[in-house]
Amino acid sequence: MRRPTADRPSQVVGIILLCGAVALSKWWPSVSAAAPDAADRGGTILAAEAGRPRVRHSATTSMVVAPEVPRRGGDAAVPREVLFTYVARLSEVSEGAQQLRVWLPLAKTGREQQILSRVVRSPVPYTITEDPEYGNDMLFLSVEPPFPESLEVAVEYQARLLGPAGFGGEPPPTPGELARSLEPRGLVIVDEEVRARAQQATARRATRSEQARGIYDAVIRQVAYDKSVPGWGRGDTRRVCLLGAGNCTDFHSLFISMSRASRIPARFKIGVVIPQAASGTIPGYHCWAEFYEEGQGWVPVDASEAWKRPELADYYFGAHDPNRFLISVGRDIQLVPIQQGDPVNMFFYPYVEVDGQAVDGIEASFQFHDLHAPNV
User: Fold this and answer.
1) What is the DSSP string of 218-256?
2) Are 245 and 131 in the same domain?
3) I need a surface site. Which of 14, 148, 234, 320 has the fewest CB within 10 A?
4) Is residue 29 very low, low, confident or very high in pLDDT (cuts 50, 70, 90)?
5) Are the C-beta atoms of residues 159 and 114 closer than 8 Å to each other?
6) In this structure, is residue 355 part of a structural domain?
7) 275 burial class (0-12, 13-18, 19+ CB within 10 angstroms)?
């Protein structure tokens, strides 16, 4: 999937993201996803305290193996397990460039999934860092001349999609996190238009959940899933209010803006939805929003899917979809180490700088394999 044209500075660096969810032993027989403990033999283990992921770094390989999360009883509650691979490939660097820096988002265990193993392969040294604001994991690498003819970094996941079974390890938000979830930021604005819409949507609704439902219903009424006008996909609340159209990013930017205008903490999540099939191709990213309800925690909403399937509007308000795979949380992200460009609007594709200038030109494709499906 090509990112929206309006979100692309035109530069000469091309990165192609490919996803091939194939068994690890097929691509690299020395590392098996079916036996993740094998990656710990003969290497240095970092962050190996009890209950925390184990990480091994080198110039070419690292693996995270998650602590076991007990499954719930009953076949209906057994989550899916999938293989998912994210590959970033650098095809060209502009002549005369002196430094290339690349940040890749890394999925981690959370409410949507348990990462059973996360294998990174890179031909050059890299580090794995975490942004202090949202807690997103990321891979960072820096390359100087002579640049390789091509640079490919692969991140392979074996993941358990938790859905309603849930992962009980998410701590309650701190006061700082809740305060941040109330602030207008970047393209997620709160102006007089947003306040008026929010006030109308929440009128005569007493509880926070009722108010959030009013906002959710209003967004579905006011926005159409329509990518015919350039500029969609940036999560620009002002554009959504003007045009009443966009993709999932735009739907949920308006939901978050209206929630914050109503003093309801809300946040943004982006990843993919794994289809209900044994294997196949995923057409691109998907995002959703969450609002915070005391006593319930973060409650997910998916207004764009509800617009597409109005008969499921009740389901998509509060549903922990069993097929979501989360890549990152938040908007306007400061990377680690910090980038020289502006905060990253959404962190799904790699972010690249050449000599301190942000560059783009990214294409992506995604595939998956369900580990419990026949013949997988």
Assistant:
1) HHHHH-EE---STTTTS--HHHHHHH-EE-HHHHHHHHH
2) no
3) 148
4) very low
5) yes
6) yes
7) middle
Instruction: Return the amino acid letter for 357.
Output: Q
Amino acid at 157: Y
Residues 21 and 49 in one domain: yes
Residue 243, strand partner residues: none
CA distance 187 to 174: 24
Domain shared by 315 and 186, yes or no:
yes
Structural domain boundaries, residue 74 = 5-166+331-370
Q: Are residues 104 and 235 in the same domain?
A: no
Q: What is the CATH number of the domain that holds 306?
A: 3.10.620.30
Distance CA 336, CA 348 (A): 15
DSSP 8-class letter at 138: E
Residues 310 and 353 grouped into a single domain: no
Helices 248-261 & 192-202, crossing angle to 10 degrees?
Answer: 80
Into how many domains does the chain fold? 2
Does residue 276 lie in a domain region? yes
Partner residues linked to 292 by β-bridges: 298
284-335 pLDDT, tens per residue? 899 999 999 998 899 999 999 999 999 999 999 998 889 999 999 999 999 9
Q: pLDDT category, 250, cuts 50, 70, 90?
A: very high
The residues near 230 (Cβ < 8 Å, ≥ 6 apart) are: 4, 5, 6
**What is the average pLDDT across 76-102?**
85
